[in-house]
Amino acid sequence: MEGIIAIWQRDIKKFFRDRARLLGSFSMPILFLLIFGGGLSGTMETMMSSGMGDGSNGFNYVEFVFPGIVAMTLLMTAIFSAMSVIEDKNFGYMKEILVSPISRVSIAVGKMLGAATVSTIQGMILFLLIPFLGLSYSIISLIQVIPFMFLLGAALSGVGLLFASMIKSTQGFQLIVQIIVMPMIFLSGALFPINNMPSWLDVIVKFNPVTYGVDVMKKIMIDVDGLSQAVRETMGLNLTVFGRSVSVFEEILFILAFAVVFVAIATISFKRAHA
């Protein structure tokens, strides 16, 4: 546990000391928030009000997309945090850890916890934008979503650790991860509804862990019950698998299972790479 905590604390300290990383990581989420939130909000809200009459119940598209932006921040931060493994190998720090009594499993778990913590902190910092965006999430819902943010960050960090254990250069890691991250974002319902996807894309959507993460965050943060059935169906707030609606509990179980499986696979890969 001492080894895990030491690696965990080191990654958190590195994050706060790297101001460029702290500020730069917000550029992409804020850009997407401005483009999709500002650019599409008028169109989506007009479509809702004209197509459903009073059934839109004051639907706010920015309120719909904000949980997706937070989930996108978790995804990008958790996966890219694993790049520190490659940097540690290149700078020789990893050799110092490997000759210590710390097990390979402890190193991987420490890195996973560090990535999950950093991604959760960055997601929470985005909450500071809520008053400026004119949104009205309750304090209770924001508190309730934080533990799930940590779980989702831990699950996604396993993906980053898996690739970091197999790739030797930061350039190669960034290239491969970008190819993976962008489809995970666009096929998750973070930015637009995914309920009318082609059948072959729908399969990818249902296997995408970010899909369930985004859906859980929306159900916790947004008053879904206050929206009409038509709005929920149009905006994809009724996620179904094999024609059956998925509950929040089932989605959390899926994320938990994904976290366990990928962290385990990443640990095995890490152990083989540094045997």
From TrEMBL:
Query: Cellular component per GO?
Result: ATP-binding cassette (ABC) transporter complex
**Localization annotation:** Cell membrane; Membrane
User: What are the entry keywords?
Assistant: Cell membrane, Membrane, Transmembrane, Transmembrane helix, Transport
* Source domain of life: Bacteria
Q: What would be one Pfam family of this protein? A: ABC2_membrane
Chief location bin: membrane
Domain (ABC transmembrane type-2) spans 20-273
Give the way it sits in the membrane: Multi-pass membrane protein
**Single annotated GO MF:** ABC-type transporter activity
> Which spans of this chain does the record mark as coiled coil?
none
> InterPro entries, from UniProt?
ABC2_TM, ABC2_TM_bact-type, ABC_2_transport, Nod_factor_ABC_transporter
Segments crossing the lipid bilayer: 20-44, 64-86, 107-133, 139-163, 175-194, 252-270
PANTHER family registered for this protein in UniProt: NODULATION PROTEIN J
Q: Which family does it belong to?
A: Belongs to the ABC-2 integral membrane protein family.
Q: What protein does this entry describe?
A: Transport permease protein
Which species is this record about?
Gracilibacillus orientalis
Lineage, broadest ranks: Bacteria, Bacillati, Bacillota, Bacilli, Bacillales
